[in-house]
Task: structure prediction
Amino acid sequence: MTRGKPSTIGETRWSPNGYHYTRTANGWELTHRLLAEETLCRPLAENERIRFKDNDRTNLTHENIEVYIVRERSKAKRIAHLEHRIAELQAELEELRVS
Result:
């Protein structure tokens, strides 16, 4: 893709973080997500994520891409996490007030 030139559908590019993107009618999309959707013959669900089996983002083969489901945190676990963070911040605030 040349700078200032509009991209065409099907055009691809690598980003500095190592991910590969493909231009679709909806804009730039991660190629590994498109491959996973192609393998599943359906769009990915909102709670589905992709991992590379060999941890190599450049290995864009169907065999290297694995779809997994993200578990939701329980409400009680989220509350406990937030209470812990609040306690840490209150302690830090108190320390600043004292000094």
User: Anything to note?
Assistant: The mean pLDDT is 90.
